[in-house]
Amino acid sequence: MQKILVIDDDRDMCLLLKRFLDNHGFTVSLAFNSKQALETLELTEPLMVFCDFRLDNNDGKTMLLKIKEVNPRLPVLIITGYSDIHIAVGVMKLGAYNYLTKPIIPDEILLSIHEALNATGKKTRLRSTIPGMEKAEQNEGALPGNDAYCFDKSEVLRNIDNLITEVAHTCNSLLIYGESGTGKETIAREIHKRSRRSTKPFVVINCSAMSKEMAASELFGQEKVSLAGSFQQKTGNLELAQGGTIFLDEISSLPHDVTLSLFRVMEGGKIRRVSGVKDIYLDVHIIIANSEDLPGTAQVGKPGEELFHKFNKCSLTLPPLRERKEDIMVFAHHFLQHQNLELGKNLLGFSEEAEEVLLNYNWYGNLRELKNVVRRAVLLTDGEYVRDRSLPFEICNFNKLLFKNINNEQSLTHPKPTSLMVSSIPRTLLHENSLKEVSIDAEYEMILETLKQSNFNKSRAAR
Q: Mean pLDDT over all residues of the chain?
């Protein structure tokens, strides 16, 4: 029986999710606060976790780090509202598998479970309500292996493609810069796929999700000697990648001493386990990534400066999606094609209104957010084209909402969604001649103002 843990302080939401997932063959455990969640996690050992971004005065970052300390490889899906997106995507750097936006679509839950469990090697069969899903699963081999990038549609993408081929053939180390969601891991996977190491392991490590105390043993392994003289060994991730490729994301999060040990691995091709006395020789292609510019954040003698000089021979910067508007519809159509195959649908494209909405939005979550939006739209579309009514309200009305500059980085520990300034919503409507749209706008303003007055407590606001 496949176990899932749902963490949310909204009991109604928990019960609805439990009832839905029970009907689809899962065993669901519920936790209404962070303490109960950690206790349940230890007892039930679930295959994956759904966690609300806002939980009893904590946020997704705090809860995610606690979960990852218990089980670093457990897939965690963060549930968030659209007003939290440019904050919530930050938890992706800390090891969250993905995020779901409210209101949650039942079919999207099943699809997310299917993707997460398959990605972690725990194949699952869902009693899906998604039309055509059974057919898509039977033809799973026909699905494209990499749905996050298409390399032949623009000059930027072609340049990335050329660099991938060069690095894959030479197996040079590579440093990838890019915001969360720009596809750093996908680029690393493509390099591995095109290299002579493609039949060997590909190991992904999110360095920011590891505690400083455990970072060395996670990477290099550990070998302890008990009082009785018996050995207790732990194989590190570098050893697990033997003959293949290891991708180290958010490399600047590593402690200085661990970074220095990593340099020795790169230069000498060997490691020594924590508490070990013997060297272990490795043949591993190392690719590192970071969301911030290393020389810009480094100080003399600090790991950032050393990392920069070590990897500066070959680096790649993935620009955010908002800086390459010409690629938005390229990827939107690419994701649409993939979702057609995965969901057994046959949508032809996007309406002019939908394209205009997608082009005018400031994609805080980059390609990951665009992919999620397209997936939701495909699930909600019955006709031949995705229309603007299938897109989230916040995206369709993005120009009416005042968001803080994304370059002014917000703390992920902030307990309130300060990104959305309710009082700044203009009274002038986009289409003043539509009574329905006037009603929707008025209702939306009232809900947001009520949420603000209730300190964003959903139950109190509803009452």
A: 76
pLDDT higher at 459 or 412: 459
Polymer length in residues for the chain: 463
pLDDT value, residue 312: 60
Q: Which of 321, 404, 407 is nearest to 368 (CA)?
A: 321
Find the mean pLDDT for residues 242-257.
87
**Bridge-based pairing state of the strands 285-290 and 245-249:** parallel
| Amino acid code (one letter) for 269 | G
Residue 368: CB atoms within 10 A of its CB come to: 22
Of 84 and 458, the one with more pLDDT: 458
CB burial of 217-240 (b: ≥16 within 10 Å; e: otherwise) equals: bbbbbbbeeeeeeeeeeeebbbbe
3-state DSSP assignment of residue 302: coil
Cβ neighbour number for residue 203 with a 10 Å cutoff: 19
Kindly state the tokens that stand for 126. Answer: 């869902």
Render 202-252 in DSSP notation, one character per residue. EEEEEGGGS-TTTHHHHHH-EEEE-TTS-EEEE--HHHHTTTSEEEEESGG
Beta-bridge mates of residue 206:
249
pLDDT, tens digit (0-9, with 9 covering 90-100), for 195-236: 999 899 999 888 887 877 788 888 888 877 554 454 567 788
Reduced to 3 states (helix: H, G, I; strand: E, B; else coil), residue 430 is coil
Q: H helices within 348-399, ranges in order?
A: 352-360, 366-380, 393-396
Determine the residue type at 444.
Y
- Beta strand pairing call for 48-52 and 76-80: parallel
